[in-house]
Task: structure prediction
Amino acid sequence: MATYEGPAFRLIETITLQDFERQGGLVSLDRPFLVRGGVTTWPAWEKWSFGWFATLARDAPRNVVVSFQDGLVEQGATRQPLKEPLEPYVRRLGEEAAAAPARRDPDIGLCSDRLLATLGPDDTFRLDWGYLTSFEPNKVYLAQCDILREFPRLKDDLRLERMWRHRRQYPYIWIGPSHTVTGLHTDYPDNWFCQFRGEKEFLLFPRGDSRFLSPSTKYDFGARLSLVDIMKVDEGGPEAALLSHAHGIYARVLPGDAVFVPRHTWHCVVALQPSISLSVFGLTLADMVMEGPKRIGLDVLHYLGLYRRGNCTCHGAKAGRYA
Ligand SMILES: [Zn+2]
Result:
């Protein structure tokens, strides 16, 4: 079988933190870009390690139990989330991160270190989709966790006012091992994705590419999902063929970086290393008035079992029905 070539990619537009601050913060809302070292002046940059979260959970007045995502949920059959204590999970990840070799294999990844080192801002290149067949997307992942509700003091470690103004901000944390996968989707609000530990590969497609991204009917509270399962595009098929016409943007997100993901931008994320990340969704007043009530209403119906129950990212699929 011929190897799947997929869409052409370019590197994400990248600026330094100094340039970001010099230009007065967020000036373009319509295209994704990366601020290299964008969160390195935040207290969280110094503090937020796996061991630090393990201590935070251990010293909490009660045993903190959180909901973990069990493998890929954006495509295919969702497995029921797992409710487990936070402390042993983050402690084990810290041990895994400490035991990992200091230098990764330069040939590993959708865009390997070796290829990345040769690329300039105007180059187009193809990804190694075969890399995604080298592991299973079955990791238990603390994904999009509202951990600040449990630990409100964590907010003191952030400097969200530097990202944008006049927005209601909703920060969610992501903590997981290597090889966690967030499948293709768009979010309805704008999003700042901040990386504190580990490296991730981030693939993005502009909102105008929706016709190549095969939107699905699977339910998610804040996202629109794609039928394209990046773990399987190597096998071909009509969705993979359509995806080849999209206009890919690749970001290698390093610890300390921040990526601006405009609303309705398709994206997916694969972790190269054990990672700690933060998504900050910023809602305008118009977002809250126009979108909020509709989405909350649908979510109530969903949790009552009246709307797309079982075909969603938040509940396990009924056996066999959505497999
Ligand atoms: Zn659900």
About this structure: Confidence is low (pLDDT under 50) at residues 319-323. Residues 86-99 form the longest helix (14 residues). The longest strand covers residues 168-176. The chain has nine helices and 15 strands.
